[in-house]
Specification:
single chain; 297 residues; alpha/beta; eight-stranded mixed β-sheet; 8 strands; elongated; binds guanosine-5'-diphosphate
Length: 297
Amino acid sequence: MFENLSERLSGVFDRLTKQGALSEDDVKTALREVRVALLEADVSLPVARDFVKAVQEQATGQAVTKSITPGQQVVKIVHDALIDVLKGEGEPGALKIDNPPAPILMVGLQGGGKTTTTAKLAKRLKEREGKRVLMASLDVNRPAAMEQLAILGQQIGVDTLPIVKGEDPVAITKRAKTQAGLGGYDVYMLDTAGRLSIDEELMQQVEAVRDVVTPRETLLVVDGLTGQDAVHTAENFDERIGISGVVLTRMDGDGRGGAALSMRAVTGKPIKFVGLGEKMDALETFEPERIAGRILG
Ligand code: GDP
């Protein structure tokens, strides 16, 4: 589907005279191709532009290594620079969930994969870290969403807060907090309501919930295939709610993963996990190397 960046660059360098060091012109020509590759991978234009500029400064004047071609060398420089941007501080996938019961707030737009990810993450915490997890759905507008979380909970053997009709999200949150404390849970996860677009009511609701629990982690779940929209969503949620990390879903799809780079570059928030399918096991720690490889094709 896409032309591989290495192939593209070897073509560029074949046309250039071989010299002892990467000249400014060589690097410029090569980075034009890099920019196209980034844009094809759905990296936003300003991010691609800034990234290429930084790499250009880094690459110009570098001695050409004998063992690899100039094209491969530029690819390596670009690859390393991508990883630098993509990796956040600390262990990938690490969550601040000491001091039980630790509240985790899950936020995002409807259809992004929030409920599925809540359950996947609960399963992971239970199985890999031996945590006792309680999940609660705050989506009072969509009874089906509450049912969905309860069904997933049964499937993975994780408790969900019993559904009480007529309660508002803040009341449910208070009940979850109490239940998590009394029940000896390590973690309680709050699956907030999603909307089709960001709206004031949704934000106020999430703010009210946040203020009841002071979440240890606030994870934004976004569809990784939505590119720029995912980045806007993250900016909005971060401004209003303050997010501690991002989960990119649908990374099993055809997308090239450029949203991950834009996300990191624009919001500065770590991408903690990626969703790789609908199954409950299809959640993995975010690995910068894998995404960098995918972006470069
Ligand atoms: P919510 O409205 O944000 O809670 O979204 P859901 O959790 O209900 O997910 C919406 C749909 O996306 C469901 O059919 C999920 O199975 C699917 N889904 C969620 N995460 C992934 C993923 O990582 N990959 C794929 N292929 N599908 C996913």
